[in-house]
Amino acid sequence: GQQLNQSPQSMFIQEGEDVSMNCTSSSIFNTWLWYKQDPGEGPVLLIALYKAGELTSNGRLTAQFGITRKDSFLNISASIPSDVGIYFCAGQLWRDDKIIFGKGTRLHILP
Amino acid sequence: DAGVIQSPRHEVTEMGQEVTLRCKPISGHDYLFWYRQTMMRGLELLIYFNNNVPIDDSGMPEDRFSAKMPNASFSTLKIQPSEPRDSAVYFCASRLGQVQETQYFGPGTRLLVL
Question: What is the least distance, in Å, from the CA of B17 to any CA of chain A?
Answer without folding.
Answer: 25
